Amino acid sequence: MTARSDVLSEVLSDLAGEGAWLDAVLADLDTSGWQRPTPAPGWTIAHQVAHLAWTDEQALSAATDPAAFADRLRRVLAGEVTVDGAAAAGAALPPPALLQRWRRARANLAAALATVPAGTKLPWFGPPMSATSMATARLMETWAHGQDVAEALRVPHPATSRLRHVAYLAVRTRDFAFTLHGSTPPSEAFAVWLTAPDGTIWAWGPADAAQRVEGTALDLCLLATQRRHRSDTGLVATGRDADRWLDIAQAFAGPPGAGREPGSPAGLAEPA
What we know:
This protein has helices at residues 3-27, 31-34, 45-64, 66-77, 83-91, 95-113, 131-153, 163-172, 174-180, 217-224, 240-248, and strands at residues 191-195, 201-204, 212-216, 236-238. It has 272 residues and is of the alpha+beta class.
């Protein structure tokens, strides 16, 4: 087994784990539970799951039928297909059918990503990416939308070692976030030191970097997925560019999101 397949296997395993956690939360919901509002304005729990199913289906298309994905991308760019519209359409399904749709989409996607040849770049709504990066992006979204569901239901969302993938994506998309906001990305690397759920430190960048970000991995993940306003985290920046990054961090493709207002729900995550 190559190093590349080891990494992909690890991400796919953690993606499956994150999906299984959310699936277990959803499995016993009655119809009224699926209609419960989430912190995303206008989106119920059903909308959240429909979005995950739809996006997993698009990722599957990108991995197995690039031509079909290119047509869907064209329709999205033309405004013929929208994220909100796709979520609303899926949310209209009976809950058992919607849950089964998501189960099928995520299982098929995992199987497809496991067979993508090394070096292949998959098309996407943002820059093309490897199978490993696609799996990481899907884990990030599954975790982020799972956070919305957890907050809607007031159930704990365990903070696990799977957060490392989300934090890594947040760090890796630093330049993307600056570009989205019309700014030239900083030329120097930041030191990012995050306290993991088990109390160890996850570090990226030069240890002696002049600019740095420190805090918990959970807080950076919540911030970069726009599930928390910066003022509701304990993240600390040293340096002007690092400080600016915490205002604009975005780990997902697409235009800059509005983010959450200050005072959004307190984190429900607890170490596991």
